[in-house]
Design a protein that fits this description.
Helix Hairpins; alpha+beta; eight-stranded antiparallel beta sheet
Length: about 300
């Protein structure tokens, strides 16, 4: 199983931008097995997996028959295979699958009856059917690979588009935060004006009441004044805490606004720009693989 004398080659070349040209190559001529040379056909399938091709080839040979493929020294043989796309009656098939690094080589001969093989010389119509059968087999595997490649690139594109949508939503959230914080800061400043005015009045009242307290003689009136002053002091402390809380709230909210405007939004916009560029590039990749897939699919 070492030599294949080529007499005719048909190349299916994919000329797709961004993808190295690949070819499904069909070769007609004698195939060398351990039992000798027999007329046959070989087909080279680019990029695909050896195991997938071999397993699928064995499965296709065994389809519809109780016969099993025998594997001796990597040569596959089956007697009584039912392949109506080639012949109406059961046939014997001798074949092998070989990994040639960049492509998988499938070589096969089809024996109609003892020592009578499908060939261009003795059965042109059957030979054409055998070539088409192998071509469709190869095309199916190459198409499956191209679909997997296309799906992977589409997933990458979808991921990028999802990333862009997330970035856009993040920017909207930041803008809403700025708007909300600005509104809240304005309202809090208005509240602080009232609180500070109240605090000023309370302090003035405390000073006045303290002076009155100091001028009173010991007795019930002074005790009542003392309680009133203590209540004023509590109100002053509470109002002071409210002022401090409001001031801190404004500082924190303004810091959020400043960070969003000076850092988060510019960074977000930069990432959006980069992601859009990546999306445009990935769309080109997807189109390339889509073209590859369509070219394989439409090949006859």
């Amino acid at each position: 199983m070492k030599t294949f004398l080529a007499s005719f080659i048909v190349c299916f070349v994919l000329s797709v931008s961004g993808i190295a040209q690949k070819a499904i190559v069909i070769t007609e001529g004698p195939v060398t097995f351990t039992h000798g040379n027999t007329p046959g056909i070989a087909i080279s399938i680019p990029e695909v997996s050896f195991k997938k091709v071999q397993d699928s080839w064995i499965k296709s040979l065994e389809k519809g028959t109780k016969s099993k493929v025998q594997n001796e020294n990597n040569e596959l043989s089956i007697f009584g295979a039912i392949i109506k796309d080639i012949a109406p009656a059961p046939i014997n098939v001798y074949s092998y699958v070989k990994d040639n690094d960049t492509a998988i080589l499938l070589a096969a001969t089809f024996e109609l009856k003892k020592d009578v093989y499908v060939s261009m010389e003795n059965n042109a119509e059957g030979f054409a059917k055998a070539k088409l059968y192998l071509l469709e087999f190869a095309k199916g595997h190459y198409l499956e690979l191209a679909k997997e490649q296309l799906d992977n690139e589409v997933k990458k594109l979808s991921k990028l588009e999802g990333d862009l949508k997330s970035l856009e939503n993040d920017k909207i959230k930041l803008e809403k935060m700025i708007q909300s914080n600005t509104t809240t800061i304005g309202a809090t400043n208005d509240e602080l004006v009232i609180l500070r005015t109240n605090l000023l009045s309370l302090n003035d009242e405390l000073l006045a009441q303290t002076n009155q307290y100091n001028a009173l003689e010991e007795g019930p009136a002074k005790e009542e004044k003392k309680k009133y002053i203590e209540d004023l002091e509590k109100r002053i402390k509470k109002t002071t805490r409210e002022v401090e809380s409001g001031e801190k709230k404004i500082v924190d909210m303004q810091a959020e606004i400043d960070k969003a405007q000076s850092d988060l939004i510019p960074t977000n916009l930069k990432e959006q720009e980069q992601t859009r560029k990546a999306i445009d590039q990935q769309k080109e990749v997807v189109n390339t693989y889509q073209t590859k897939y369509n070219t394989i699919k439409d090949y006859r």
